[in-house]
Automatic annotation (TrEMBL):
Taxonomic lineage of the native organism: Eukaryota, Metazoa, Chordata, Craniata, Vertebrata
UniProt name for this protein: Src like adaptor 1a
Chain segments annotated as transmembrane: none
Cellular compartment(s): Cytoplasm
Gene3D superfamilies with a match to the protein in the record: SH2 domain, SH3 Domains
Keyword field contains Ubl conjugation: no
Domain SH2, chain residue ranges per copy: 87-179
Keyword Phosphoprotein attached: yes
Domain SH3 intervals: 25-85
Amino acid sequence: MGNVMRGGENRNETNTNCNDSALKGEDDTLVVLHDYPFPDISEPIFRIGEKLRVLSQEGNWWRVQSGQSGRENYIPNNYVAKVYHGWLFEGVERQKAEELLRLPGNRLGSFMIRESTQQRGVYSMSVKHRSIKHYKIYRLENNGWYYISPRLTFQCLEEMVNHYCDSADGLCCVLTGPCLSGTANLLDTTTQPPPVVMRRNNFDWKKVDRKDLISAGAPQGQQNRDTMVSYGVRKSIASYLSLAGAQGPRQQQKKHKKKNKSVYITSHSLTHMDLEEDYDT
């Protein structure tokens, strides 16, 4: 919680644990600010708003891995911005912040705290609401505490974020999550199952080989346990094949004339067909 200032009360104590150097740890996350390369040059490798994991830095280039596709490649440093804690964006201008917050995946209350591109240590908060709202973050001269409203001060930006995630307390809405937090994490392609493809069933039951459905030499009760066809389906198939094979030419002709007529088989008939599965017709 923040500290409420009353009647010009001054607090001289400083927090040595909540300074700028502690706020920015080892950065290993970048966000793409522009499609790279530009679409008029070639198909972009990385899209705006895409989260990247840093693999290495080589001069003015980053070797990165996409958090969405898992693709590894190089990108120049002027196409990306560093992100700390998921919500602190370094060197993102106001217009670019609005562009990022309007991307799909952000919701009402998505936010970022951005550091000025011209002056280090100067911050603003951008929040997605009916429109994108921007709040200047100030600091007290005597102890360096942060505040948006002078009645409520915070020792560090993280404390400010935690407070406004619990209560709007003067902002346009409660903070619900960092900007672009809905993007996918790094993919583990080794554990991803193959995609399921649904196809139209053109299966012809008349071409079914009885040997594919039953095990002729298996004892009663143990029969067909190794098959991938369920017991009920096997019984239905066996009944159908027996009925189809027992029909004469006239019955076959009559069947073609009445294609929509349903065939009902009693449980007694199914049991009878089950006992005659191994009978060679």
